[in-house]
């Protein structure tokens, strides 16, 4: 499931930035990344299919194996196997066949449920963003120049324990001004916008938003 999540994340990034990807002719590079992840995913799926086939084989042959083992053990202990005993035992084994075949599926679904619960628990236990990271200044402006957005010595990170994504940022956008944020992929354009909106953790500095 981790490999599947990695592939889905990469595909989402490709689809969201498809224009930039086509502009810089990065199709081959990203295609090789996707195919590499997909190859590993197919390897895991192949192993899962083999195990599932083995499980079906074992569960299909289980009634015969159990019957032979039970009757063989019963006779080896010196008992006499009669027709009534054999037919009653076979009927009991047939009744138990369906619950036993569903046991493996139950374990598989239980494991998937536990993984889903852990993911939900991790998401719900994530630290809430502090709304005070962005200071609202109202319509009067920050200073006499009426800056609409201002970042002073701002350091931001998506995770507290990670290296800062943006460090010592200083930005001032006057009210009514037009500012373009440009740069190569991964330089921090989206992180800067997230910092203005308070959607990324602020480690240092101040963010003022009118």
TrEMBL record:
Lineage: superkingdom: Eukaryota
Subcellular location: Endomembrane system
Gene Ontology MF term list: ABC-type transporter activity; ATP binding; ATP hydrolysis activity
Primary site of residence: membrane
InterPro entries to which the protein is assigned, alphabetical: ABC1_TM_dom, ABC1_TM_sf, ABC_transporter-like_ATP-bd, ABC_transporter_C-like, P-loop_NTPase
Topology with respect to the bilayer: Multi-pass membrane protein
GO cellular component, one term: endomembrane system
Entry keywords, A to Z: ATP-binding, Membrane, Nucleotide-binding, Repeat, Transmembrane, Transmembrane helix, Transport
Protein name: Multidrug resistance-associated 1-like
Upper lineage: Eukaryota, Metazoa, Cnidaria, Anthozoa, Octocorallia
